[in-house]
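Protein record
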Amino acid sequence: QRHQAFSSSARQLKNKVPESQKIFQADNGLPVHIKGGTGDVLLYRATMTLTIAGEERCSRCISTVQEDKARNT
C-alpha cells in the first residue's frame, strides 16, 4: 500500500524537461552555461572569481618557495 501512495503522487508531477530543453536549445547567442538565468550567471562569475584567485594564490606560494630555495642555495 505504501508503494501505491508513492506511485500515485509521482504521476501528478509535471515533466519539466521539455521546457528546460527549449530554454537551453534556444538560439539566443548566449553560452549554454548562462542560459539558465541570473542564478547561472552568478554561479559562473563566482566560480571564475574563485578559480582566478586560487591560481593567483598558488602562483604566489610557488614563487615564494622558489625564492626561499634560491636564497638557501
Summary: The helical segments are 2-11, 17-25, 38-72. Residues 38-72 form the longest helix (35 residues).
